Amino acid sequence: MRTPCYWKDKNLVSFLLLPLGSIYAGLTALRIKFKNQKKAEKPVICIGNLTAGGTGKTPTAVSMAQIVKELGYKPMFISRGYGGKLCGVMVDKNKHTPYDVGDEPLLLAREADVSINHNRALAAQKAIENGADILIMDDGFQNPGLQKDISFLVFDGGIGVGNGYPVPAGPLRENFAKGLKRANAAIIIGEDKTNLKEKLGDMPIFYGKMKSCELPENCGKLIAFAGIGRPEKFYNSLQELGANVIKTFDFPDHHFYSEKELKELIDMAWKEDADLITTAKDFVKIPQDLQHHFKVLEIEIEWQDKESLRDFIKAGLKN
């Protein structure tokens, strides 16, 4: 889905939808309260959020895996595999497609092994059987089936919590205050433009920013497209790198591209004498026989104080 524009502030539409949002938040609270959590044999680090839409969880999870590797652990990811049809498998990036395991697990698999299961406890068990000594849960903060040892909440500094209403009236997946009580720390990606720091109280906060790698070689005019929570972040990154973006196209988050859509983009690029560029998350959903038509912009998290984050994780794993 695309992020609704009325989530940004309080308005008539969000106000009319608030009763539904209250029901949604109430049901989420009940599900979390009455579900029995299972304890994994190895530590679980959850990279989650309180809002729907893209906040940078997946690149944060990738960076977290890199940090725990530096601490001497062998991490594996556990994921629901949103959008995929398979369950109970370890991702094989050379064999599986996004239709099998979802788009984000294929991105994660570039950094470490990924265990897919709607039941996160079973996903954890399979990862441990395959040699994991620490588990990184990409998303799943509202999933009550597995006990977390360290829970991080990731926020997009540019939009914060929007209007502060629950879905569908706003972006919140649950009550803000109740969610904070279950978290150990917050991560703010990008400049804090909505004064999130004050809303988070005494919770430890770590700051990072999306760092775009260099533009691919031989880029001329560019037609950019993305199916992520906030496509404008991708387009802004291209502009900051000095790219000549002549057109942009937004698709819903987690969108699976049809052959017709991809060929229309290829034809348009040919007519405009331009290159096509997209995100890594979108690129993995393009069939291999068409990928040579597309360029990809890689990103990573650059931490303001990586050493403090590493120390926080180390201390949390000892408890």
Keyphrases for this structure?
single chain, 319 residues, alpha/beta, Rossmann fold, 2 domains, four-stranded parallel β-sheet, 11 helices, 34% helix, globular
Helical stretch tally: 11
* Rg value: 20 Å
How much is the average pLDDT? Answer: 92
Q: Helix coverage percent of residues?
A: 25-40%
Task: Tell me what the structure shows.
This protein is α/β, with parallel strands linked by helices. It folds into two domains: 10-210 and 302-318, 3-Layer(aba) Sandwich (Rossmann fold); 214-297, 3-Layer(aba) Sandwich (Rossmann fold), CATH 3.40.50.2300. It has eleven helices and 13 strands. The chain has helices at residues 12-34, 57-70, 98-101, 103-108, 120-129, 176-182, 196-199, 231-240, 259-272, 280-283, 306-318; strands spanning 44-48, 75-79, 89-90, 114-116, 134-138, 150-156, 185-189, 205-212, 221-226, 244-250, 275-279, 294-297, 299-303. A nine-stranded mixed β-sheet has the order 3-4-2-5-1-6-7-8-13, sandwiched between helices. A four-stranded parallel β-sheet has the order 10-9-11-12, sandwiched between helices. Strand 7, helix 7 and strand 8 (205-212) form a beta-alpha-beta unit. It starts with 11 loop residues before the first helix and ends with a helix. The relative contact order is 0.16.
Give a quick precis of the structure:
The protein has 319 residues and is an alpha/beta fold.
Lay out the secondary structure.
Elements: H1 12-34, E1 44-48, H2 57-70, E2 75-79, E3 89-90, H3 98-101, H4 103-108, E4 114-116, H5 120-129, E5 134-138, E6 150-156, H6 176-182, E7 185-189, H7 196-199, E8 205-212, E9 221-226, H8 231-240, E10 244-250, H9 259-272, E11 275-279, H10 280-283, E12 294-297, E13 299-303, H11 306-318
Parallel strand pairs: 1-5, 1-6, 2-4, 2-5, 6-7, 7-8, 9-10, 9-11, 11-12
Antiparallel strand pairs: 3-4, 8-13
